[in-house]
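Milestone M4 deliverable, item 7.
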Amino acid sequence: MVSTVDTYRRVIGLTGPLLPFFSFFARLPVAMSQFGSVLLVAETSGSLATAGIVGGVLSAGQVLFGPVLGRLADRHGQRPVVLAAAAVNAIATTGLVVGALGGLGVVPLAAIGAVTGASVPLVGPLARTRSVALVHRAKADESVIGAVHSIEGTMDEVSFVIGPALVGLAALVAHPAVALGGAAALVAVFGTAFALHPTAAAVAGGPAPDRPKGERRARPAGVVYSVRGSLFLQGAMFGGLQAGIASLTEELGVPGQAGIVYAANGVVSAAVGLSLGALPARFGLRLRWRAATAAALLLSAPLLFTGSLWGLYLIVTLLGAAVAPHLITAFALTERHVEPSRLAESMAFATSALVAGQATALALSGRLAEWYGPSGAFAVSVGATALALVIALCTRVPAGRTQTVAASVPDREDGAPEPPGPRESGDATTPDTAPGYAGR
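Output delivered:
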């Protein structure tokens, strides 16, 4: 435990104390915008259908354009991309507030929502990419990568607990417009601060590596595509869980408990994610992936039979212990098996898969909850975790890195390239096995 704490101290020594501070508050608007937009449009239009359309289009914008922003960051550096995205997102979010309060119709509101989603700054994925570059540039050992991304994953989970809570509190005390206005202010201030932080120089971007004429860019290892599918299913688990919790708490006459139940899941997930840095290195990525998906299936199955509030609390809270290990391992596998020059884009693809799964499952499980009750929505979660386990069991995971890390950081001042990082041996990994994840 002492060595783990020391490793976390080394992380802060590499990033500086302000970078985690800026990145945490810059990712809060991501957790606030979708929920806040749904509440705002429902309040001002009186139509849940209109609110659902605007919220859905906002999510679609993020899913489709997130990888584009990631690729731009890989090519041109994080600083200009995040500065531009933060500015556009703050303006679009403000426009959504003004338009909703002004009574705009569904089409213009949806258009503004699309721009809002498309311009979401990828602070979570970009912070991970930047941290990896800092670790490699400092030639720190691989255990520091694990600690860096365990911290990043914990911040994601905490932000996705606090964000919706802030929206709900603002809506209760004042108006949903206050919450979205706050999100616009946060992204403008802290997104800009994240972009301007000196560590952005570690990811200044650059052209793709030169290749012989006629040679095509190598495709990522097959495990990367399997991981994206697994993350889509993890998002589906989140979506079914949200719909099922909302349905059951309403059926029990305590709808106000829904947010607290879901928050308990996130809190436990965050705590487990932070503690993964102490897990022995002999637990390799393949083993962690399979164990995490198996645990998720085992812990989610009782949802199909629960009918009480306390039973719901118990199951959902315990289920949180399987969330962080899966997501952290998924992003670890992504980092190991993509070209370093396309790391931000690949992290963004992984994030988009998670968001797409959640949005898709929310739409499906909401209908199933109407037809079959809470168990209909929970069946989506259980089915998604079962499929994720199948993917984890059937995917071949390469023993070591399939890409060198040397291209991920600038050359040293003396002109010599950085040496590649350590490799794995068999299924066991060095203690770098906990890169961060997108949150939910």
